Amino acid sequence: MVKLFSIKQEFSEKIFSKKKLVEFRRQNVNVKRNESCLIYTSKPVRKITGYFLVKEKIRLPLKELWTQTKKYAGITLEQFNEYFKGCKEGTAILLKKIIKFVRAISLDEIRNEIKTFQPPQSYYNLKGNLQTIIVNFIPQKYLRHLL
């Protein structure tokens, strides 16, 4: 199943430049190894800009999570602590096969097909018509990795 993740511009740029090979989430995300995840770069970009495949998911207490991921985190310990403030555990999604689309898919393009489309606050599974419509925007050469 394809997932759609909202990621701030600062971090999606680091992911595409491979300076950040981990995506952190406060909640326990249901992702599996080799699962396809589209990246929706949030404001001000507001486009689906690429995708990654999941290398591994780790859910641990914060101190252990930072120790295991800091080498690939692409953020400082201060940013890590600020993001996870109030949490006891966190999730790290280790990324592989990171691809930036040559032509991103804008929010307006998606809404031309699905008027009620709302980008996820964190992430969600693409299902049914939504998956079909979004996948139709994606160049053919990327589809074998996504489906």
Quick summary:
The chain is of the alpha+beta class.
What key attributes describe this structure?
147 residues, alpha+beta, Archaeosine Trna-guanine Transglycosylase, Chain: A, domain 4, six-stranded mixed β-sheet, globular
Task: Give a quick account of the main beta sheet: strands, pairing sense, barrel closure.
Answer: 6 strands, mixed
Percent strand equals 25-35%
Derived from helix and strand composition plus strand pairing, the structural class reads alpha+beta
Low-pLDDT parts are none
Total strands: the figure is 6
Give your account of this protein's structure:
With 147 residues, the chain is α+β, with helices and mostly antiparallel strands. The protein has one domain: Roll (Archaeosine Trna-guanine Transglycosylase, Chain: A, domain 4), CATH 2.30.130.30. It is built from six helices and six strands. It has helices at 9-16, 62-69, 77-83, 107-113, 128-137, 140-146; strands spanning 3-7, 22-25, 36-41, 47-61, 89-106, 123-125. A six-stranded mixed β-sheet has the order 2-5-4-3-1-6. The chain is globular. It starts with a strand and ends with a helix. The model has no long low-confidence stretch (mean pLDDT 90).
